[in-house]
Amino acid sequence: MASITLAELAEKLGAELHGDGSVQISAIAGMDKAGEGQITFLSSSKYRKHLAECQASAVMVKEADLSYCTGNALVLKDPYLGYALTAQLLDTTPACAVDIAPSAYVSPTAKLGNGVSVGHNAVIEDGVELGDNVQVGAGCFVGKNATLGANTRLWANVTIYHNVVMGDSCLVQSGTVIGSDGFGYANDKGRWMKIPQVGRVVIGDRVEIGACTTIDRGAIEDTVIADGVIIDNQCQIAHNVSIGENTAIAGATTMAGSLKVGKHCIIGGASVFNGHMEIVDGVTITGMAMVMRPITEPGMYSSGIPLQTNKEWRKTAARVLKIEDMHKRLKAVEKQLEDSE
C-alpha cells in the first residue's frame, strides 16, 4: 500500500502543516470512519462540529475551520481538491495491461511507442499508432489507422473503430465504443437506406470517458471531443456532435446529431439534447433536462417535474392533459372581457 508522511503530503499539496509532520498517511476515509494512518477532509463548514470526534491521523481543512481541529491538520484553500490530489498520490489502481500479452494480436504495420502494454486477447489492427506508455486492456479492439496519444489508457473490452484519433493522457472505461456508425439513413419509399458514416471521432488530451458510453463517428465531418472533457457512464454522443473544453457530462445523457456544446458546461445526468443546435459556454443543466432549443446565454437551466407522491403526480398528469382545453377556455374569457370593455 502507498504511504506518505504528512510533511511530504503538505509539500506536494502546497498546504500549511499544523501538527506532527512525521505521521504516516496510507489512505483516505470519510470523517466518521477515518482512523489511524488515514486522512480525511472537511469541505463544508456546516460539518465542522464533527471534527471534535474525528479519529483520523490528519484532516484537510480551510483556514476558517482550523481552530475546530483537535489533531494534525493541513490547511488548504480547497480541501476537496486536496482530497482529489491526495487520492491520486495514494492510488493503488493496477495498470490496464502490463507488457505485450502472448495472446494479443498486434499488426506488423502498427507503430508502438516506448513502454506500450497490450492485454490478453486485444487486437491492434493495421496502421494503428500507439504513443509512449499507452495501455490497452484485455479484449480491446483498436481499428485500422486509429491513433492513441501518449499515456492514454483503455480498460478491458473497449472498442476503438478505424481512423479514431485520441490525444494524450486519456482514460476510457470498460465497454465503451468510440467511432461506431452514426444513425444516418435516407428513406426510399418506406425502406431505410444506410448512409455510410465516413467522418472520424477526434478526441483531445486529458479526456475521460466512462463505462458503456458510445461516441459515434461523423457522417461526413468529424465528431469532436475537446481537451479536458469528462463523460460519465452510459452516455450516447451522436454523429457530428462537438463538445467544448472542460465540459462535464453526467451519466445516461443523450445527445442527438450535430449538437454543439460549449466550453466549461456542466450537464446533469439523464439529460436529453435535440440535434442541430448550439449550447454556449458556461451553461449548467440540471439532471433529467430536455433541451429542445438552443441556449444562447450562460447560466443554470432546468426542466422536468420533481418527484411527487403517486397521488399528487396523478393529479398533475391529469391536469397537464387538459392544458389545451384550459387554454381555449382562458382565451374565450379574455375575449369576453375585451368585448365587455
Automatic annotation (TrEMBL):
Transmembrane segments: none
Residue span(s) of domain UDP-3-O-[3-hydroxymyristoyl] glucosamine N-acyltransferase non-repeat region: 23-89
Catalytic activity: a UDP-3-O-[(3R)-3-hydroxyacyl]-alpha-D-glucosamine + a (3R)-hydroxyacyl-[ACP] = a UDP-2-N,3-O-bis[(3R)-3-hydroxyacyl]-alpha-D-glucosamine + holo-[ACP] + H(+)
Keyword field contains Zinc: no
Key word Cell wall biogenesis/degradation present: no
Catalytic site positions: 239 (proton acceptor)
SUPFAM superfamilies assigned: Trimeric LpxA-like enzymes
Keywords, sorted A to Z: Acyltransferase, Lipid A biosynthesis, Lipid biosynthesis, Lipid metabolism, Repeat, Transferase
EC annotation from Swiss-Prot or TrEMBL: 2.3.1.191
Function: Catalyzes the N-acylation of UDP-3-O-acylglucosamine using 3-hydroxyacyl-ACP as the acyl donor. Is involved in the biosynthesis of lipid A, a phosphorylated glycolipid that anchors the lipopolysaccharide to the outer membrane of the cell.
Protein name: UDP-3-O-acylglucosamine N-acyltransferase
Organism per entry: Grimontia celer
Gene behind the chain: lpxD_2
